[in-house]
Amino acid sequence: MSQVKLMKDEWGDGPHEADYYLPDSWDVTVYHIAGYQRPVMTQAQIKDALNHPLGSPCISELARGKKKVCILFDDVTRGTPVYQVIPHVLAELKEAGIQDKAIEFICALGAHQAWDRSLLAKKIGEDVMAKYPVYNHFPFMNCTSLGKTSFGTKVEISSEVMSCDLKISIGGISPHPQYGFSGGAKMIMPGVSSYDSMYEHHGVTHQAWFEAGRGAGGRMGSYDGNPMPADALEFARMAELDFSISCLLSEKSEIVGIFAGEVEASDKEGVEAAKKHYVVSPARDNDISISNAVCKAAEAYIASLSAWFTIKHDNGTAVTLANSHAGQVAHYLQGSWGKSFGGRNLRTQPVPPWVAHHVFYSEFPEARNWDRWAEKDHCRILLPSNWAEVIAKLIEWHGLKAKVAVFPDGTNQYLQQPERKDTPTRSEERLKV
Questions:
Q1: What is the H or E stretch that residue 142 is in?
Q2: Per-residue pLDDT tens over the stretch 104-125
């Protein structure tokens, strides 16, 4: 047996490369992102990037005379090593004379579940957890109305965030199935927006645009002309986000680029870099496609997209590696919260008709994951927790001669491929609740 090494357990006690064994006789190709050899930034380079912001004064200048500072950070569904950036932000605040008691941290989780202490500490560091108050955003109450965007979306932002006179965000920039690319503005919408605002933004204002993308993966890498990031940018401006820090990540969730400063300027430059960095060359007509989830391991369904769109229409198998010890995120807006009900924008994810078998592999099994797919597709889905079982099934279905594609992080890439016109849209499977 041959092997491929892939990252696993991003926020576990020991993130590491693991060996996944494959038959020697298979024709295996590993598809890296274009920028996979980009060097990891040193601490000195991170500091320098913050000291040379785009379209904005430095944090130390913005902070002078401020009374209350909030630092927003992305949650455990993202691989951003926020703890590597925080010390430089705190040093800038200290230079401006900001006292520790004036600083707080807020996890900009949007409609995701609240995270416990152990996972928050992995994101921001034990020292920060012990020294500063750290809060989960709570979208269901205590949000301040700021009016509407030009798109007509209701803008309601965390009242705690709005009580601060300096707002800084730290997150990642990566391909996104709705926004094309995530970036600084998403730290506000959906990051610290109200549940009602998130529902309007995702389920009403931009519903037609989303559905026109022909499925959940139709907008990966599609940013220019996309109204969703444009609307999110208006949220960020209305919330008066002062300084945005967006990190470009490697396939191992290491920082390889930073775009910091005024939110629109940093988003613009960051997206242009992301388009070149995260793109993967065309991979078509594989018998088996194996897509690993690292950066967004708790939203591993995103990795499934790469596997789905790179297998042949005749008896192809898509394999998703969903090895997140935290499990798959509980989503208040789009997830299920029981057999009979769920979030206001609840939808199942249809498996494309050309996929003969969809394997969702995790060493941390959860029966509730069945809720993620349309019931009519369950007969084509397998949820194993043992790699030997996966290989046995793949050999049963494809024998010892198979063309195989492997994606080291299917959640943090996008494919340069023509759109499949027979992709089902999520609206076809929408549940009325």
A1: none
A2: 999 999 999 999 999 999 999 9
Complete domains list, the chain, with CATH? 2-30+281-429 (3.90.226), 43-277 (3.40.50.11440)
Helices then strands (H, E): number in the chain?
Answer: 12, 20
Bridge partners, 144 (sequence order): 157
d(CA 370, CA 341): 14
Cross-sheet strand order for the sheet of 134-136 = 134-136, 103-107, 69-73, 166-173, 243-249, 255-261
> Residue 243: which of 51, 33, 39, 21 has the closest Cα?
51
Q: Are the C-beta atoms of residues 159 and 144 closer than 8 Å to each other?
A: yes
Q: Rounded to a whole number, what is the distance in angstroms from the first to the last CA of the chain? A: 48
* Chain mean pLDDT for the chain: 92
> Does the pLDDT at position 203 exceed 80?
yes
d(CA 196, CA 344): 9
* Angstrom distance (rounded) from CA 388 to CA 23: 11
